[in-house]
Amino acid sequence: MKNNFSFVHTKSWPYIGYALAVTFVLWIIGLEFLGFLALACALVYAYVFRQPNIFFDYSKAKGLLAPLEGEVVAITELQDNQEYGYSVTIEGSFQTESILRVPMKNATVMSVTLQRGTRLAEISPLFPYLNEQGSVVFQDNEGHTILVEHLLKKSIIPLFLEVQEGFKVEQNSVYGVGANTKTTLYLPHNFHFDVKVGSTLYCGQTLIGHFA
Fold this sequence. Notes:
The chain is an alpha+beta fold. Helix content is 17%, strand content 36%. The chain folds into two domains: 47 residues; 151 residues, Glucose Permease (Domain IIA). The strands form four sheets. The chain has an eight-stranded antiparallel β-sheet, with no helix packed on it. A hairpin with an 8-residue loop joins β4 and β5.
């Protein structure tokens, strides 16, 4: 078993620190109500950036673990795509864990993209084009390649990706933070699913499926 524990992700420190500093100043000058609002903001940031304890069963290591927490809203077989055979779309929210974890064992980061943008509501027709988004391609030592695309919805924090091309990463290690994201995994033709539409995924714990 592997224990990955830290109360909050390090990216949260500036947000929480600023909110606590504002709280202190407001209380000093006698604006207690506004101070309590600032303290509430610090608690919200701590919740959004929370990084709970993960106990990882290495018997699942040959499979693909959920890179984030959320609900499977679509599984699609891709037609006329030579590289990928399936896509699975996962909806996150502010209530779900925002930590992003490497889903594969003994993986290499093949490419990383990060495009800053807006944070429009999902109902906007411009949502998939203008909103902040990023992607990471992972490949394990057996040649299995997956593409993970993150699309930020309305969010109080940006999308963070902390890996670079060529990085060697272990399964379940943290590679970023994405609060309230819509994530799509593109998987090879020889992938077999252990989840279905409507399944709830838990970051670093739920087995999405395995490679044949």
